[in-house]
Amino acid sequence: MRKTLPSLFVFAATSSLVAEAATLAAGDGSDLTGTLFVDLVATGGNDLQWDNGNGSSHAWEIPSGGSWASDGSQTVSLTGIAIPIWANSTPDDTTNNTQNGTLTFTFYSLGADGDVGAGYSGDTLIGTATAAFNSSGDGVGNYFVNFDTPVVWVAADSTAFSVSVSSDAALRLKTGPVATGVEAENTGNGNTRTGYLMSLSVAGTVAPVPEPSVALLGSLALFGLLRRRR
Known about the structure:
By secondary structure, the protein is mainly beta. It has one helix at residues 214-229; strands spanning 18-23, 25-26, 35-39, 47-50, 58-63, 74-86, 101-109, 124-133, 140-153, 160-167, 171-174, 184-186, 201-208. The protein has one domain (18-208). Strands 1-8-7-10-5-12 form a 6-stranded mixed β-sheet, with no helix packed on it. Residues 1-16 have low confidence and may be disordered.
């Protein structure tokens, strides 16, 4: 008689690479949930402008500052961000500043060296989060969003991550006061964009990577025993 093995379900610690959409609102780092890994969001300084909304050519490095370990023993959940945006001053302004649309925040692990290096070729995608921007006409200001679903960096393997911002409409960001903020990097060649530090805020939580559960270990042991008896 043919024996049928019991079904065994093994769950891996994985994350969704794309977090659900939320909406950006006027506010700053104090409106974010979780630990503030960096809290520098401010208007002023220079501008970064992409008429087509594709800001992926530049990213900003967020160092751990001791907030998390880089040996794979901890999981970092990125819960929200605040950035300085230059939107149009009135609803009928036709200037191509930030228009209403969907912003995408893309997060990368910067690897063992903790640097964006020669572009993204040696870095690992953590995930993305999207947020609606509906405030065109409100002018220059700081805007925050707490992601509906955190972007989860399982077993963090670097002392830094980077974030870039894109939109499906025109995008214009302020960089914040001169000589403050985190480094801006050209993601194509890894060069630092001198004079374009970004004053932003990013929040998240840190937790140990879960140990295998007793139930899971018992199931694996049973599976091995049944295989030997076939």
